């Protein structure tokens, strides 16, 4: 099983949308259930985030490779598309 590291913030609307997208995507494509997600809350675990190159949350990584970093103003549909792309890249490796 491949693992994505996801850095998020409690109360972040983009992070909430990413979680909603993950739930929808795993229902739409069962292969996505083969991806494990290790969630790191930035404020509670800042030391665990130091080795990752990102500015915005949520950010998804496969190892040290950034697969997705949210950008201000992204709609739910945009976030879902980026999460899908991150999942597809993960499964392809």
Describe the 3D structure.
- By secondary structure, the chain is of the alpha+beta class.
- The protein has a single domain, classed as Glutaredoxin.
- 40% of the residues lie in helices and 25% in strands.
- The protein has three helices and four strands, in the order βαβαββα.
- The protein has a four-stranded mixed β-sheet with strand order 2-1-3-4.
- Strand 1, helix 1 and strand 2 form a beta-alpha-beta unit.
- Helix 1 crosses helix 3.
- The longest helix is centred in the C-terminal third of the chain and has 17 residues.
- It is globular and about 35 Å long.
- It starts with a strand and ends with a helix.
Describe this structure in a few short sentences:
By secondary structure, this protein is of the alpha+beta class. Helices cover 40% and strands 25% of the residues. The longest helix has 17 residues, at 76-92.
Instruction: Enter the CATH topology name.
Output: Glutaredoxin
- Topology order in helix (H) and strand (E) letters: EHEHEEH
CATH top-level class: Alpha Beta
Strand order of the largest sheet: 2-1-3-4
Q: Looking at the structure, what is the overall shape?
A: globular
What is the CA-CA span between the terminal residues? 11 Å
CATH architecture: 3-Layer(aba) Sandwich
Structural domain count: 1
Largest sheet: 4 strands, mixed
- Supply the CATH superfamily name: Glutaredoxin
The helix-and-strand class reads alpha+beta
Helix content: 25-40%
In the predicted model, the low-confidence regions spanning at least 5 consecutive residues are none
Task: Output the number of helix runs.
Answer: 3
Overall pLDDT: 96
Radius of gyration: 12 Å
Strand content is: 15-25%
Strand tally is 4
């Amino acid at each position: 099983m491949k693992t994505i590291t996801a850095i998020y913030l409690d109360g972040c609307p983009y992070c909430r949308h990413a979680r909603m997208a993950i739930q929808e995507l795993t229902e739409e494509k069962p292969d996505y259930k083969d991806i494990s997600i290790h969630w790191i809350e930035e404020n509670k675990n800042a030391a665990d985030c130091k080795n990752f190159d990102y500015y915005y949350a949520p950010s998804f990584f496969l190892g040290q490779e950034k697969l997705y970093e949210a950008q201000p103003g992204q709609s739910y549909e945009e976030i879902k598309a980026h999460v899908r792309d991150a999942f597809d890249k993960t499964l392809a490796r």
